[in-house]
Design goal:
Blueprint lengths: L4 H9 L1 E5 L28 H10 L4 E7 L28 H12 L3 E5 L12 H18 L5 E3 L12 H11 L4 E3 L7 E2 L14 E3 H4 L11 E3 L2 E6 L17 H10 L6 E5 L10 H18 L5 E6 L2 E19 L10 E5 L2 E6 L6 E17 L6 E7 L15 H8 L3
Helix pairs in contact: 2-3, 4-5, 7-8
Amino acid sequence: MKPTPQQLAWQAAEFGLFCHFGINTFYDKEWSDGTLSPAGFNPARLDARQWVQTAQAAGARYLIFTAKHHDGFCLWQTDTTDYSVRAAPWKDGKGDVVAEVAQACHDLGMPLGLYLSPWDRHEPCYPDAAAYDRFYTRQLTELCTRYGPLFELWFDGAGSEGRVYDWETIMAVVDQHQPNALIFNMGRPTIRWVGNEDGLAADPCYYVVDDTSVSIYTGRKDAAPKSYMPPECDVPIRQHWFWHDDDLHTLKSAEHLLGIYYRSVGLGANLLLNVPPNRDGLLDDADCRRLMEMAGEIKRRFARPMPARLTQRGAVVTIEFDQPVLFDHLVLQEALDDGQHVDGYVVRAGGREIAAGRTIGHKKIHALPAVTARELTLELNTDAARIASVNAYQTGHQRLPELNAPFDHALFESKMMRM
């Protein structure tokens, strides 16, 4: 299976920033039930340019924003419901957060994606499937026609277990107005959820999958054919998705964030890291500093590859340096225009195996004990594959970064259900 040009562009982006923001931000909630008063929504210093500039400084190449979470509160001037910024004191009810984010992304050249929760705990017509499908289609149409090109549409499956939406009608909106947008998880997905909220992929990381096995909310009862559908790894920078004033202690260390990067981007998946705006409408200073620590270290480690010549003959790739070099990282990239082919490989230096794995995909990062070599050999399981690049780096770090703060699901659940 071959990827579309849009999928290749999305994979090349590698790293995006997720911004969970909404009515929950102002009531110390993770999930709420649609009854929180819009009177509490008042981000007096909201600055979407700060979000985008921070994302770009961190090396993120796209931004996903929560236009509507499960509570149903809409962050744009919607004509579908009164439960929106139109009922809030912010800007006397005339504000439009989606518009401000879209304008900032347009001005700064940042691709924008929007999250529109299918599950809606506020909307009275939600129990009536047909009525809600019409309602949801109207909301999606507003978002797809008012804010310019969208890079990704994020359809979260939470709360929709067992629900069958009219995806044929819903996706017709996307086909008409945003045909180049990547679709996450539901409907007619072109990218898939990695399967956890820890930000972690695995080896092998396959791009061609049966979408009924990775996206269970398509509404189709028959088994779907295999599709090219690379994974996205979503993870919050703190314990929670929305900003809270009592969880600074859960902010992940720079080492942990690097570990996530190695195990997402470094295993061929995209990383979507959530950094939530606070009640002022700004990204938190502590989160920004930590994000910059992570970004600075990634840049330091991978900014200067060692010059090398690459020659491929069938299933064997030779990498030659001008002189013997000392390195502790290898970064492999497969050419994906014709699809993903590598499913087993070995890297040798002087006949000695120094690295091995299953898939390479868009990118595969190996941290190694220090190696000195003038020539490397990459042996592939198939001569159908083409290697785009093999780069060596001397970083001073010979091991994978540690994941020293695993996701505490019990703590997350307690905050999520605090009503």
